[in-house]
Amino acid sequence: MARYFYVAVDVDGRRRDGGIDADTETSARAALVARKLLPVEISVAETSAASSSSRVAANGRVWLRHKDRLLVTRQLATLVDASVSVDEALGLVIAQQDKPAVRQVLGSVRAGVQEGRRLADAMGAQARSFPPLYRAAVSGGERVGRLGFVLTRLADHLTRENAIRSKITTALIYPAALMLVATTVVISMMTFVVPGLAEQFETFDTKLPLLTTILIGTSSFLSGNWGAILVFLALLTAGCILALRLEPVRVAVDGLLLKTPGLGRWVRAINASRLARSVGTLTLCGLPVLDSLRTANSATSNRVFARAMDRAAERVEQGEPLSAAWRASAMTPPLIVYMAASGETSGELPRMLEKAAEHVDQEFEAFTQMALSLVEPAIIVLMGAVVTGIVLAIMLPILQLNQLVAG
Hints:
Blueprint: E1 2-9, E2 15-22, H1 25-34, E3 38-44, H2 49-59, H3 66-81, H4 86-95, H5 100-114, H6 119-123, H7 132-144, H8 147-201, H9 210-224, H10 226-244, H11 247-259, H12 263-284, H13 289-297, H14 303-317, H15 322-329, H16 334-346, H17 349-406
Antiparallel strand pairs: 1-2, 1-3
């Protein structure tokens, strides 16, 4: 059996490109006619450069960043909505890309489409670029014949996620920079300034104040062991990263986050918001509620929350409504549960879940802004207290010496 690439016309007069497996060219033409496609050109696939490209991209280390995935999705949605075939749309999008990595990933996807696979299946070879939730939505869109609509919804979904990330990142820049500068100043003083003063203090015949003794001891430790300290911090960081890859450790940390007063509430809320929005998007794309819940839950970052949603999925599988299963989990905010119940009653579950997610996201954004507005003065006060302690530790021996001289 050989591989044949074809150019054909469908019943609506639109061009269709792809690949098909057949014993002979005649068999390939018959198979295309059975699919209600009129063959225009058929050629035997030689050493398929497309397949080679697919393997290289799939086994390589390139993937789409979040912003690249958003741009590609938006472009594909526009072209598919304009009745451009998926193969041609991918070709046009590839031609517009400046980044080699993006072209390589999309080239792999296009190769899969040209080999006759569905778009969602072709994206499966690039799982890091197209996560399960994304592929499930695309698959649902292909199944119900609304791929353009689904891609538009996915682009909107990615836009909201990107907006939230950008706001949090922007808000964190100033506190992080402030903390970095303040820490650098304190470490520089302890490493370079205090040791010189300590040599002067050693000439004093009187006992140094406790605060000064602590400062000199800390400075001596930092200046004499800075290499070992850096190595220790690097090993500690690497150890924490490796430990978090272990499932028991990750579950324990995620459980601790959920139990932390104040913070736990918002960890639950943001995970529930993303889950609700994802379930709404997938059900709107034609997936059943149970499949939507399980697919969306696979992308949940908190392990303890994900396990609770797995139990909720089991309840849905047994016949319970989604809202009742979420209520029993005790992990979903009451607002989302109420909106889910309202959506189930009115038959507008996707829209209600979207509204609930938007409301929770707005609350989370307000909470983040308030928390960060408190962090900035807290950093200033903390560093001010540290610098004041250093200055006092330096000034106390000088004042003590002046008193002895005056006495």
